[in-house]
Amino acid sequence: MTKAASNRITCPHCGGSIKLDETYLRQLADGWRRETLPQLKKEILPGLREQAATEARKRLEADRRDQEQEAEDLRRQVRTLKGEITKLSRRVPTERAQQLGALHEEALAQALASKFPQDEILITGRGRAGGDVTQSVFNPSGAKVGTILWEVKRAAKWSSAWVTKLRKDCKSGRHNAGVIVSDVGRADLAPIAQIDELWRTTLELAPALSAALRANQIQLHSNRPARAQAGTATAVYEYVRGSDFGDRMRGMVQAATEMQKDLTTDKKASERRWERQEQHLQALVEEIVGVVSDFRQVGRPGVVLGIPKSELAALPAPRRS
Length: 321
Prior knowledge:
With 321 residues, the protein is α+β, with helices and mostly antiparallel strands. The chain has a domain at 29-222. Helices cover 62% and strands 13% of the residues. The chain has eight helices and ten strands. The strands form three sheets. The chain has a six-stranded mixed β-sheet with strand order 3-4-5-6-8-7, sandwiched between helices. Strand 1 and strand 2 (17-19) form a beta hairpin.
């Protein structure tokens, strides 16, 4: 093809030959930019934008569903972990408290055994009634002269229920002395203090208190022969002064107090029951009298429903609401 032929094109409609020079090409380009390109933009771009927006919304919705699913999975894992943490937090403090309590009991028993090797120190088994540690006191001759019951507590706050329990344990086991070992105590008490015939101290001061208590028990035991020789009156006097008599008297007073409380409660309950029965009976009598009164005009003179009026006169008059 010659150069001249390459610069010409043929119209497909009329078959005419058109020369492609630079001026014509610029005119075509300008016309395409002014007319064709805006029309194409007007026709194509809205559809492309809508398609792109639709695809973007689909991707965003899919991403949102994925994120929500991931968030739900994460929340489910968090709830599961929280449940496991709660179970562990409930179990661990109890187990730890029991372990620490056992360690304190062993520490107390070892301290007492080291300080008083002649005594018998026994740790009460877990789940058994009584205190935590029992110290059987022996004098230099090897005779058993008394016992000390130790109760080890590790709570963060003092409880008066400890005293009640230890007093009952001492009475049921016939122990001569009872001691609560706790790092906490009432604000008005010293590190070693007496509470209602019992004692309270710390783990560090327990051996010192034990030395004083066992010395007293050994002394009381050594004085028994002298009291026996002094006669019956002296023996009775010493018995009344002793802790055994006091324990028995406190036990009797406590039993009488509880019985009085029960009697008072039963009396109040009976009075309320009697009052209700009396009200029911009064209501029944009033209803009977009301029925009889309604029939007063029906019976023959002097008799109402077979009941003489002289007897009816003794009945109370019915109350009208």
